[in-house]
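Backbone-to-sequence.
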């Protein structure tokens, strides 16, 4: 087996991006007299130091940490947490994506292109017509349920997920269509409401349906979340506006995540993805328990029971997706084996004629 030479990297592009970003940030803070606002919001900057690492090393955006910190710890509106997720990820996830592309890490390009197309079409619809009708309490619960199910999935499937090697190749057009549908549905229903989620959904498709290696699935999820975040915050600024307080929190956190998310991409290659995913999975379950406890009065017994049931439904969906993936992988392997048999039989037939 031949060994491929290492791909040429273009990290100078990433350093150029950092220079442009930090120059702009310095002008916004000191040139526009915003240093006081940055100092007042230092707790979110400290929180996003961990959040940005999670963003770069797992299939979960930095908003996964920023959202519960702002909403559960600081008791700010869930709509502000959602808009902050868009804003802060537009820097952190973008920085991580540029780093990934400059290092030429492998990505599931066909599915990623489909997801980007679906997100571009559906995210504005979700922002305009879905998110405005979802109450703040529901935003918290949707966030808590989806990430709790993600956490539980990894707590009992981590060995299988971490053992995948490469990626099952189906058909590029099929991959694109799956990405298109996944991106559209996730963007309209989850990302428009919580500011995160399309990355986790696409990641689930890759590891459960396509049996993709984490080295492919996680970077792909980072790139789609970067696109959704930039697209989402630009669209909201142009058409709906963002919640008061987002800009000040963003100014404080942005310089941290610009380096923190790429650091996550780099460090996770040294310590492995399995320990990081297990740690984040525990955090996901913990934030669900925290949300249910803080909102127990508003939810009532029925609401709490339905929230737990919703986690179970999400897990059932993940398991159905995994079972479908097993069938598709078996079919793909059978087709390849049949093709190899036919190809190997051709020289024998020619020799006999």
């Amino acid at each position: 087996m031949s060994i491929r030479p290492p791909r040429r990297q273009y990290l100078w592009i990433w350093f150029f991006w950092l220079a442009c970003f930090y120059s702009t940030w310095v002008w916004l803070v000191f040139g526009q007299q915003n240093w006081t606002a940055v100092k007042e919001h230092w707790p979110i900057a400290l929180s996003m130091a961990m959040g940005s690492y999670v963003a770069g090393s797992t299939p979960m955006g930095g908003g996964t940490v920023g959202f519960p910190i702002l909403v559960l710890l600081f008791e700010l509106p869930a709509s502000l947490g959602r808009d902050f997720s868009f804003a802060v990820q537009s820097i952190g996830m973008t920085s991580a994506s540029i780093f990934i592309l400059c290092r030429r890490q492998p990505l599931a390009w066909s599915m990623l292109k489909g997801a980007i197309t679906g997100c571009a079409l559906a995210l504005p619809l979700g922002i305009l017509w879905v998110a405005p009708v979802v109450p703040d309490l529901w935003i918290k619960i949707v966030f808590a349920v989806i990430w709790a199910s993600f956490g539980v999935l990894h707590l009992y499937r981590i060995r299988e997920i971490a053992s995948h090697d490469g990626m099952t190749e189906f058909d590029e057009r099929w991959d694109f269509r799956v990405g298109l549908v996944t991106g559209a549905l996730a963007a309209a229903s989850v990302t428009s409401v919580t500011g995160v989620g399309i990355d986790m959904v696409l990641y689930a498709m890759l590891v459960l349906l396509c049996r993709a290696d984490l080295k492919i699935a996680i970077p792909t999820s980072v790139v789609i979340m970067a696109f959704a975040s930039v697209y989402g915050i630009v669209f909201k600024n142009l058409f709906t506006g963002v919640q008061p307080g987002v800009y000040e929190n963003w100014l404080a956190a942005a310089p941290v995540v610009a380096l923190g998310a790429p650091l996550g991409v780099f460090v996770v290659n040294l310590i492995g993805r399995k320990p990081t995913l297990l740690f984040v999975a525990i955090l996901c379950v913990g934030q669900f328990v925290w949300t249910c406890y803080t909102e127990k009065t508003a939810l009532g017994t029925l609401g709490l029971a339905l929230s737990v049931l919703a986690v179970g439904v999400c897990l059932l969906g993940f398991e159905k997706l995994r079972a479908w993936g097993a069938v598709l992988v078996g079919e793909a392997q059978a087709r390849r084996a049949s093709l190899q048999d036919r190809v190997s039989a051709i020289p024998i037939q020619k020799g006999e004629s």
